[in-house]
Amino acid sequence: MPAAASPRILRGAPYFPVADVATTGAYYRDVLGFQLEYAGGDPPEFAIYSRDGCALMLRRVADPSRIQSNEARGGTWDAFFWVSDVDSLFEELKGKGATFAYGPTLQPYGMKEFAARDPHGYVLGFGQTVQG
């Protein structure tokens, strides 16, 4: 009898509480290059944006004063994406007016990475594995 295949995780997405889904989504679209996949409600209460198959979810919350990024709690990123050309992506986002937590940096763990900050302060890391 053949062994059953293990269930596979097909996709993941960070989930960001936001004050305004449409305004935040426009930033992800216009500045960070994500495309709208789905929006629910009018005005939208929830949306999924993706770039190159990598998704993130935005959800309107009633009390935006409670929104807090991982960085504000002592962490680094709220999401991290591995990319094929970190320098080109940095230049693309810089040209669109992105705000950065830090620019391209070679890390001791073999990644060259940068981090962009969204309007709520969420930090998205983008990195490329480099040969050491």
What attributes characterize this protein structure?
single chain; 132 residues; alpha/beta; Signal recognition particle alu RNA binding heterodimer, srp9/1; 2 domains; 2 helices; globular
Summarize the structure.
The chain is an alpha/beta fold and 132 residues long. It contains two helices and eight strands, in the order E-H-E-E-E-E-H-E-E-E.
Q: For the record, give the distance between the C-alpha atoms at the N and C termini, rounded to a whole number.
A: 45 Å
Coarse shape: globular
CATH architectural name of the largest domain? 2-Layer Sandwich
Return the CATH class of the largest domain. Answer: Alpha Beta
Instruction: Determine the mean pLDDT.
Output: 94
Q: What characterizes the major β-sheet?
A: 4 strands, mixed
- Order of SSEs, N→C? EHEEEEHEEE
Radius of gyration: 16 Å
The number of distinct β-strands equals: 8
Domain module count: 2
Outline the structure in words.
By secondary structure, the chain is of the alpha/beta class. It has two domains: 11-62, Roll (2,3-Dihydroxybiphenyl 1,2-Dioxygenase, domain 1), CATH 3.10.180.10; 70-132, 2-Layer Sandwich (Signal recognition particle alu RNA binding heterodimer, srp9/1), CATH 3.30.720. Helices cover 15% and strands 37% of the residues. The protein has two helices and eight strands; from the N terminus they run E-H-E-E-E-E-H-E-E-E. The protein has helices at 21-30, 86-95; strands at residues 15-18, 35-40, 46-51, 54-60, 79-82, 99-106, 111-117, 123-129. The strands form two sheets. A four-stranded mixed sheet has the order 1-4-3-2, covered by helices on one side. Strands 5-8-7-6 form a four-stranded mixed sheet, with helices on one face. A hairpin with a 2-residue loop joins strand 3 and strand 4. The longest helix is centred in the first third of the chain and has 10 residues, at 21-30. The mean pLDDT is 94.
